[in-house]
Amino acid sequence: MNRISHQNHDVEWNAARATDLYGIEYWGAGHFQVSADGLVQVTADTGGGRGTINLLDIVDGLSERGLPMPVLLRIENLLDAQIAQINESFARAIAQSGYRGRYRGVFPIKVNQQSQIIEEVASFGARFGHGLEAGSKAELLIALATLDAMNGYIVCNGYKDEEFINLGLMAQKLGYRIFFVVETPAELPLLIQCSKAAGIRPRIGARVKLSSRVSGHWNATSGDRSIFGLTSMQLIDLVDTLKAHAMLDCMEMLHVHLGSQIPNIRDIRTGVMEACRYYVDLVREGAPLGNLDLGGGLAVDYEGSRSSHTHSMNYSMEEYCLDIIEVVMSILDPHDIPHPTIVTESGRALVAYGSVLLFNILDVTRFEAHALPEQVPESEHENVHNLWEVLKSITFERAQECYNDALFYRDEIRDLFRRGQISLRSRALAENVTLEILQRIKSVIIGNEDEYPELAGLEEALADIYYGNFSVFQSLPDIWAIDQVFPIMPIHRLDELPTRQAILADITCDCDGKIDRFAWDGTLNNTLPVHPLIEGKEYYLGAFLVGAYQETLGDLHNLLGDTHVVSVRINADGSFDYVKEVEGDSVADVLSYVEYHPQTLLQKFRNSAEQGVRAGHISATERQQLVELYATGLRGYTYFER
Ligand SMILES: Cc1ncc(COP(=O)(O)O)c(C=O)c1O
Q1: Is 207 in the pocket of ligand 1 (CB under 6 A)?
Q2: Using alpha carbons only, what angle is made at residue 349 by residues 227 and 142, rounded to the nearest 5 degrees?
Q3: 92-128 pLDDT, tens per residue?
Q4: Where would I find the H helices in 6-114?
Q5: Comparing C-alpha atoms, which of 591, 582, 513, 584 is closest to residue 559?
Q6: Continuous segment of H or E residues that includes residue 72
Q7: Which of left, alpha, beta for 110 (phi over 0: left; psi -120 to 50: alpha)?
Q8: Which among 79, 110, 218 is the best mutation to test ligand 1's pocket, defined by most ligand atoms within 8 Å of the CB?
Q9: Are 75 and 570 in contact (CB under 8 A)?
Q10: 222 CB under 6 A from ligand 1?
């Protein structure tokens, strides 16, 4: 589809065209679709067949329950579906290839530490023996309390102090299958010392630095300069030290982590190949190993382009699993090395799909001319008259010329205004005429933009600003921090042609609090097709695939706090249950995070109001109303409330 040909009003619009435009079939991985009546739907396995629900019904139900937007929606079935998919894909790849090892997934807690997520990974994942990866003491405590001792691995990465190691060792006694991954040479002496003192033989993993580099945003995680992992020399030292302590038999895992969101399957193959070479030689050195942990990296196609672009992936989960099994066999088999248990620490691929940020649009700014006069008054400056002439002469053929002239005269007028030579009223008229010129140029070239490459920025420059009831910094921090792209689209009215192009602004009033990169129509765009707002009716958008990293990385910029979080479970009959709701932060909550005491603030305000009464500025009744307003404000949601 041509980039903005969807705005061609002659073509009949329907939900199928909306599906194409927003690329929902490509990034939705079969979980999301558009209904014939223009609603975004979620379809999921329910245990008793597949069930489908409308996101708008969830929003309506929340509103009836007094939970206003924005809301982070978690769909439990989707998390289950992704856990099942990776385990079943590996199982199929193993069966197809005649691989004689097994697969053990571990979910890295850091990707989404929320208790609901970890509990669901542990309970649903139990049937596959899916475990957890802990990168800190706190995460180990979560893992130990959540995972069944006999089920699933616990892989301990990150810096480990004595307390961390001792807890892990004692937990091993309980039956937990804990792996201590040595990431730096300094960690080993402490691990040896603690395990000897406890009389427990630890399961040791060695994380190696691969020289294979991956493409994508996280390419620094791989290659010689990656921060974690042992060099080949350090690995040899580790083997020798373990031998010297008669502990080489404890070395049960080789660990690598190529990076996160690896878009190109070739990079994964190359990395796994190098990891297997290490594996072969470590076995030759006498290490038993038996487990090959390939870390994270399985990507999510946020962009829906199925390409090797940073926010996409040029492979499927099925292909990922098959390729890994194939590469491992191709390197190990010639050496007759038993097939290891393959461990992956896939994070985003498991949790991204299950969370959707839902928010309403509060307002819009349009870059359109106000009513123009019939004629420019004779008395106006000649440059204003020149602009008027440009306006009258716009044709497709003259589009570039008119654009150049308009900007020239507009800039002259701005200059004259700065020097005090024309009035504010004249400048306003000139700006208004310029806007009309730009809008008309945009409409005459529509569908044939390729002929005017210099006007490529026009659409963005004239795009509406839709103000959304959310905070980029709190709910979508990666958009701000690392230019992450998430699929964003309206969740209703998709049977109507989206006639507007917009960027999104949040309510933080920070100039970085905006979204101006969107994936739709199979490519990245600076604006999003949206519908005009209808007076008195809410317009809802969803930011999809936000379940990985966003919740904990979010911050309190402008003191906009956690949104409400609601979990639903879809039933086979198309109904759904609100399984859990967690109320978002109140204003008092966020104030206490930054060391204010809401009660003290209220008391201080009461006192000021009392002084106002004494000074005769307000009555005692007004004081009462004012104090009540302040107290209500403290109890309220940090987001815009209608
Ligand atoms: C050691 C380790 N394992 C696993 C992951 C998860 O990666 P992903 O979310 O790409 O699967 C990360 C994140 O970067 C990591 O550092």
Answers
A1: no
A2: 70
A3: 999 999 999 999 999 999 999 999 999 999 999 999 9
A4: 15-22, 24-27, 55-64, 76-97
A5: 591
A6: strand 71-75
A7: alpha
A8: 110
A9: yes
A10: no
Give the distance (Å) from ligand 1 centre to CA of residue 155.
12
154/147 Cα distance (integer angstroms): 9
Query: In Å, how far from its chain's centre is CA 54?
Result: 22
The pLDDT, as a whole number, for residue 6 is: 59
Distance 107 CA to ligand 1 centre (A): 9
- SS percent in the chain: helix, strand, coil, step 5: 45, 20, 40
Which numbered atom of ligand 1 lies nearest the CA of 345?
4
Res. 571: pLDDT tops 70? yes
Do residues 607 and 560 make contact, with C-beta atoms less than 8 angstroms apart?
no
Q: Report the atom number in ligand 1 closest to the C-alpha of 111.
A: 9
Region class of 368: left (phi > 0), else alpha (psi between -120 and 50), else beta: beta
- Residue 548's Cβ-count burial label (10 Å; 0-12, 13-18, 19+) is buried
Ligand 1 atom index nearest CA of 548: 9
Which residue shows structure tokens 């989206």? Answer: 498
- The tokens for 494 are 């998709």
Which atom of ligand 1 approaches the CA of 349 most closely?
11
The residue whose CA is least distant from atom 6 of ligand 1 is 296
Rounded-to-integer distance, Cα 381 and Cα 373, Å? 15
Q: What is the pTM of this model?
A: 0.93
| 430: enclosing H helix or E strand | helix 424-445
Confidence of residue 410 (pLDDT cuts 50, 70, 90): very high
> Pocket of ligand 1, candidates 109, 345, 353: which has the most ligand atoms within 8 Å of its Cβ, to mutate?
345
Could you tell me if the CB of 293 is within 6 A of ligand 1? no
Distance 41 CA to ligand 1 centre (A): 30
Average pLDDT over residues 5-15: 71
Cα–Cα distance for residue pair 543/69, rounded to 1 Å = 13
Backbone φ and ψ of 612, nearest 5°: -60, -40
Q: Is the CB of 101 under 6 A from ligand 1?
A: no
Answer whether 260 contacts ligand 1 (Cβ < 6 A): yes
The alpha carbon of 576 and the centre of ligand 1 are apart by a number of angstroms equal to 32
DSSP labels, 265-300: HHHHHHHHHHHHHHHHHHHHTT----EEE--S-B--
Exposure string of 345-365, with b = 16+ CB inside 10 Å and e = fewer, is: bbbbbbbbbbbbbbbbbbebe
Spacing, Cα 120 to ligand 1 middle (Å): 19
Nearest to 209 by CA among 260, 134, 275: 275
